[in-house]
Design a protein that fits this description.
The complex is a heterodimer.
Chain A lengths: L2 H18 L3 H12 L4 H7 L8 H32 L21 H14 L4 E2 L5 E2 L1 H4 L27 E2 L5 H9 L4 E10 L11 E11 L4 H16 L4 E9 L2 E10 L1 H5 L5 E9 L1 H6 L8 E8 H9 L6 H4 L2 H4 L3
Chain B lengths: L1 E3 H5 L8 H10 L3 E8 L6 E11 L7 E6 L4 E6 L9 E6 L3 E2 L8 E2 L3 E3 L2 E3 L1 E3 L16 E2 L9 H5 L5 E7 L10 H12 L12 E5 L4 E5 L7 E8 L8 H9 L7 H13 L3 E5 L5 E2 L2 E8 L5 E3 L5 E3 L5 E4 L4 E4 L3 E2 L12 E7 L2 H11 L4 H8 L6 H16 L2 E4 L2 E3 L8 E5 H8 L5 H10 L3 E5 L3 E5 L10 H12 L18 H17 L3 E2 L5 E2 L1 H4 L7 E2 L10 E2 L4 H12 L6 E11 L3 E11 L16 H15 L4 E5 L7 E9 L2 E9 L1 H6 L6 E7 H6 L16 E10 L4 H11 L4 E10 L8 E10 L8 H19 L2 E3 L2
Parallel strand pairs in B: 14-26, 15-19, 31-35
Antiparallel strand pairs in B: 1-13, 2-13, 3-4, 3-6, 4-5, 6-11, 6-12, 7-8, 9-10, 16-25, 16-26, 16-27, 17-25, 18-19, 19-22, 20-21, 22-23, 23-24, 28-30, 29-30, 32-34, 33-34, 35-36, 36-40, 37-38, 38-39, 39-40, 41-43, 41-44, 42-43
Classes of the chains: A alpha+beta, B alpha+beta.
Chain lengths: ~325, ~800
């Protein structure tokens, strides 16, 4: 049989072997047996020299064509085997829980505080801060608190046991004084922070809690502005359909003073027409005078509320102590 | 304070419903904290009289009756048979809601036909009225029952009324009486205030013949007024009086005391009645002395408690003994009793601060002290005295001695305050007509003393202790105009400015980075126990008046709080805890330092069914700290291992920037861990956040991406245990091999083939040029210099790789 006649049958044999290889090893063996240096196709090439001048180009052409065909088959076989290898050995249960990373959560008080800060910042407010260990001047005197006001009592307020007897601020309003004394108006700040009252811890009290104070001092500031801003902020916080009511009240450092009640689906669910949420008022002229501002020239308003209270209302939390226990089962709910 | 709907109506007219009144009072600034209905049982039921009783034409067991309800004749079908024509009965008219048990549906009497005959009401049995269990027949009333009278009145039941529990703000002592509230209503309705008659008839005998007053301390008692009523008959009060007191929460005692209590609730001015004859008489006269108690003077108040007084307490006394603790409580020795014939009636004004101090010191809080310490009305003392005298005469009989004794050395000048109309608008943001403004203020009995075009001056009555300057008048206008009528204008104004604003965001970023690294945020108590605090620091900020010993210092560190939080989790079977807190810590001299603390323990990742990928170790903590610093843009932080264990840590490092110590991290002492329920290793870190944020470099800039391939060279070397990663980096930084871009530690090994006291460190060094592909030779020559430096400077033995 001539060399030319051998090409066809050998090719068929080689293709069958490549196609029947079911793993990489078998494929490698087949490749070696046919296309390797000692392979049978390589052997054919070596026999080319024995052919006549006329036959040689014909045979070369036929061998090359067969070889490309085998190479295509080899690649296909390799792809087939790789694909087969990639298929998982067992079926996957896509309903089983996946492998998770640990995701940390911000404390709910931080989340609420940030929401409050965000809505105030929309209105051009910036965040200010002040010390928690305060003196009586900033916490009470400068805020027009009567000298014998019960809030000053050691019964209600924590004092530090040093000679100067600083106290733990009972409200963030002390920062009003510090800012107005150091910064020329207009002033437009909010002050989130910790405050302290000497209440034994129970479901609604903790000796430490958080407040946010808002203060705006400028020319021509009125009760109308106060109402507009408060309504904006509380609708942001408690929902667009929240109704806000202002009710005359008394605070020593504002005049007129108001308490703010709100009503929405939440209060209705609690069976209440209105729920108290904040206190506010026009900065008392005595306070402006105390920080060296002329109340004829400058007016302002301030308001304050408890962050825990907002968080408790918003999320339906029934015990303030949960905020300070840091049980991760609690924190992960928000 | 409590008031009732009907009581208010006696002083001012209004046509509001029970709910409207609550709403109006609330919107005036007196919050209604509770509303309670009292009395009013048997409404709609009247005393009726049977005119005729016949057989029902269509039913054997029913009767058909004509009944008079006092004004007309009704036809009523009745099932009972125990009555006759002429009997008086309890007749429920059409529309009456019959008394039912709590929770039952109301049963309302309707006009209807029973077996074809019209029935226009119901004659009630004792059971139907919930008066007895008798349902055999209807209730037959006595013959003298008044036809047409409300059945409730017939029984003497209380009238229907509504009691409001009010929260009066401390600046408005004038609202601690019914008249004060009525005055507010008068101001908004424009209806006149109707004050009671205060002109009691007087006898011919002058009071000065019987009694004298001697105020020793006019500072503490600026006004003392006395009247004497002789020949009273002490006994129970009339029903209207005791009923009214009970409604507002005052226990009736006897007619004289009840009269004084009633007038207190009415006017807000406390009074006291003494049995005059129990005061020491000297030469036919009794002298009331108002003086400070002497030190350690003993006095028994009428609740039979003995008090030891001091010179700071004001005492009402006679010439021999104390008879009342001024403004707080009367004495047991001169109390009104069943034998009392002559009454000394005290109406006074005491210094509020002094009353508050006494009341607090002795723990004695009374309706009187409550009102005096908020500031009573010094101007109304005489008027209230007359009012009370009149009422005592009305309910207890007797005769009022002529005149009164009124020690009132210095009547206060009535304040005058000018109100500029333009300021009203400037503060409230709404334009209110001056006529309307004047109307509001005059409605509150502020007297208009002069009127200019743009302003007016008002005289402030003595009861308005809260009105001190113009802004207080503006507040009154605001209340009466109605804050709900002031328009809300969209927020306007300036851009705020404060240096802290940026810091707030930096802190928020820190929190976000740490949650991103898989930690939960904690918020701990600021007040902790000194015992916990001493784990971290000896110098503490202690409270003078702590609530308890577990909250007696300000936290010097966030770590004790995190350990408490750890415990809270462990006791709830949450074993895998990764927490951080950002918060303030406190050091002496009012230093407040913001810190960030981290605690991790337990499993590294959430539990997974296939494998749990190990427990947290110190390297996890270090990773969190490293990444937090990197993400904040803080460089140049060093970790210096401490040679010895501390109270808190079994193994730890001090964290430094340059020479400044900025924190610490390490593994908790297992003994400390056990105190917080930890059975596994706990890792803690705390850094000074204020300092970190000051050193933050948040600038960012783009560097071109590498264009040429990199080559890596690995080095494994044996070094002494004391050689640290940072020592290795120091050598690298000193040598600065050409084209070296990174040095990465990829293995630390101790054990087989590594001598005791040594460790094997393996590093991968990456070389790359920005200009070209490096040749082997170039890389090798640079790398060889580095390896040699390791040998020379770290005494490293290079291992074959």
């Amino acid at each position: 049989m001539s060399l030319l006649d051998e090409i066809g049958p050998l090719k068929i044999e080689a293709l069958a072997e490549l196609n029947s290889a079911n793993d990489q090893a078998a494929l490698d063996r087949a490749k070696g047996a046919w296309l390797g240096p000692q392979g049978r196709f390589t052997g054919l090439m070596k026999q080319m020299g024995s052919l006549s001048k006329e036959d040689r180009p014909l045979a070369g052409k036929a061998i090359n064509a067969a070889k490309s065909e085998l190479e295509v088959a080899l690649k296909e076989a390799r792809d087939r085997i790789e694909l087969a290898g990639a298929v998982p050995s067992e079926p996957i249960d896509f309903t089983a829980p996946g492998r998770r990373l640990r995701v940390g959560k911000l404390h709910p008080l931080t989340q609420v505080t940030e929401d409050i800060v965000k809505s105030f910042r929309k209105l051009g407010f910036v965040v200010a801060d002040g010390p928690e260990v305060e003196d009586e001047y900033h916490c009470f005197d400068a805020l027009n608190t009567p000298v014998d006001h019960p809030a000053r009592d050691a019964q209600d307020t924590f004092y530090v046991a040093t000679d100067s007897r600083p106290l733990l601020r009972t409200h963030t309003s002390s920062v009003q004084i510090r800012v107005m004394k150091t910064q020329k108006p207009p002033v437009r700040i909010i002050v989130p922070g910790r405050v302290y009252r000497r209440d034994t811890a129970d479901a609604t009290h903790n000796p430490t809690f958080h407040q946010v104070e808002g203060l705006y001092v400028d020319k021509g500031v009125t009760v109308s502005d106060l109402k507009g801003t408060v309504e904006f902020v509380f609708r942001e916080l408690m929902g667009a359909k929240t109704q806000i009511r202002f009710r005359p009240h008394y605070f020593s450092y504002t005049e007129p003073s108001f308490e703010i009640d709100f009503a929405n689906s939440l209060t209705r669910k609690m069976g209440k027409d209105w729920l108290e949420i904040a206190g506010c008022g026009m900065v008392h002229p005595a306070v402006l005078e105390e920080v060296g501002l002329d109340p004829e020239e400058w007016t302002g308003w301030a308001f304050g509320f408890g962050i825990e209270r907002i968080a408790m209302l918003r999320y339906g939390i029934n015990d303030i102590r949960l905020f300070y226990e840091n049980d991760t089962r609690f924190i992960h709910q928000f | 304070m409590k008031v009732t709907y009907n009581w208010l109506k006696e002083y001012v007219d209004f046509d509001w419903s029970v709910e409207e009144l609550a709403e109006r009072i609330t919107m005036l600034g007196v919050e209604v904290e509770g509303i309670e209905q009292t009395g009013g049982a048997f409404e709609g039921i009247v005393v009726g009289q049977v005119i005729s009783r016949d057989q029902h034409p269509n039913a054997d067991k029913l009767t058909l009756c004509k009944v008079n309800d006092g004004s007309r004749e009704l036809q009523i079908v009745c099932g009972a048979t125990n009555f006759h024509a002429g009997d008086k009965v309890a007749l429920a008219t059409v529309g009456t809601a019959m008394p039912v048990e709590e929770g039952q549906k109301p049963f309302v009497i309707k006009e209807g036909k029973i077996r074809g005959e019209v029935s226009q009401g119901m004659m009630c049995s004792g059971k139907e009225l919930k008066l007895s269990d008798d349902h055999e027949g209807i209730l037959i009333l006595p013959e003298d029952a008044v036809l047409g009278q409300a059945f409730g009145d017939h029984l003497g039941a209380k009238e229907k009324d509504t009691v409001y529990d009010l929260e009066v703000t401390p600046n408005r002592p004038d609202l601690n009486g019914v008249i004060g509230i009525a005055r507010e209503i008068s101001a908004i309705t424009g209806n006149p205030l109707k004050l009671p008659d205060v002109d009691p008839p007087e006898s011919g005998v002058e009071i000065s013949k019987a009694v004298a007053i001697d105020v020793k301390d006019p500072d503490l008692c600026p006004r003392y007024n006395a009247r004497v009523i002789q020949g009273v008959e002490v006994g129970p009060s009339p029903q209207w009086l005791s009923a009214r007191l009970e409604q507002v929460g005052v226990r009736p005692i006897n007619n004289v005391v009840d009269a004084t209590n009633f007038v207190m609730m009415e006017t807000g001015q406390p009074l006291h009645a003494f049995d005059l004859n129990l005061l020491t008489e000297v030469e036919g006269k009794r002298t009331v002395i108002i003086r400070r108690a002497s030190e350690a003077e003993k006095f028994t108040t009428l609740d039979n408690q003995e008090h030891k007084l001091t010179n700071d307490n004001l005492l009402i006394a006679d010439s021999k003994k104390g008879i009342a603790l001024a403004g707080v409580m009367g004495g047991a020795n001169t109390e009104i009793n069943s034998n009392t014939r002559d009454v000394l009636l005290e109406t006074a004004y005491f210094n509020p601060q002094n009353i508050r101090a006494t009341s607090k010191k002795l723990g004695l809080h009374t309706d009187a002290s409550y009102r005096f310490e908020r500031g009573a009305d010094i101007g109304c003392v005489d008027w209230v005295g007359r009012r009370a005298a009149k009422l005592i005469l009305d309910v207890s009989g007797g005769q009022l001695l002529a005149g009164d004794l009124d020690a009132f050395p210095q009547a206060p000048d009535l304040k005058q305050i000018v109100l500029r109309y333009e300021r009203v608008n400037a503060i409230l943001g709404v334009s209110i007509d001056p006529v309307e403004v004047n109307g509001f203020l005059e409605g509150l009995d502020l007297e208009l003393v002069s009127q200019e075009k743009s302003s007016a001056a008002f005289r402030i009555p003595t009861w308005r202790v809260d009105i001190k300057r113009e802004i207080d008048l503006i507040e009154e206008v605001c209340r009466l105009y109605g804050v709900d009528k002031i328009p809300s204008t969209p927020p306007k104004g300036c851009l705020g400015e404060n240096e802290y604003d940026v810091r707030h965001d930096d802190i928020a970023l820190t929190r976000n980075i740490l949650t991103g690294l898989g930690l939960d945020e904690a918020q701990g108590q600021t007040l902790i126990s000194d015992q916990s605090a001493r784990l971290v620091k000896e110098e503490l900020v202690e409270l003078e008046n702590p609530l308890s010993s577990d909250m007696n210092v300000l936290r010097p560190s966030l770590m004790p709080g995190l350990l408490d939080s750890l415990k809270n989790n462990l006791v709830h079977q949450s074993q895998n805890v990764a927490l951080f807190e950002v918060g303030r810590t406190f050091a002496p001299e009012s230093k407040e330092i913001r810190k960030v603390a981290i605690l991790i323990t337990g499993r590294r990742y959430p539990a997974f069914w296939d494998d749990d990928r190990g427990k947290q170790d110190i390297n996890d903590l270090k990773g969190v700290v490293d990444q937090m610093l990197e993400l904040l843009g803080i460089y140049g932080v060093n970790f210096n291992r401490r040679e010895v264990a501390t109270t808190l840590y079994i193994e730890s490092a001090e964290i430094k920037m340059g020479k400044q110590s900025i924190g610490q991290m390490g593994q908790l002492q297992p003994g400390v861990g056990k105190r917080f329920e930890a059975r596994e290793a706990v890792y803690l870190a705390e850094l000074d956040l204020d300092t970190l944020l000051q050193r933050r470099n948040s600038s960012k800039s783009f560097k071109g991406l590498p264009q040429f391939p990199a080559s890596e060279r690995d080095v494994a070397m044996l070094v002494d245990e004391s050689v640290t990663h940072s020592d290795v980096l120091e050598v690298v930084n000193k040598v600065k091999p050409d084209n070296l871009v990174t040095a990465r530690l990829f293995d630390v090994f101790r054990g087989k083939n590594v001598p005791e006291g040594q460790k094997s460190l393996a590093y991968c060094f990456t070389y790359r040029s920005n200009d070209k592909t490096l040749k082997e030779k170039e890389i090798n020559s640079a790398h060889d210099v580095l390896v040699k430096a390791f040998r020379d400077q770290l005494s490293a033995t290079i291992r074959d790789t």
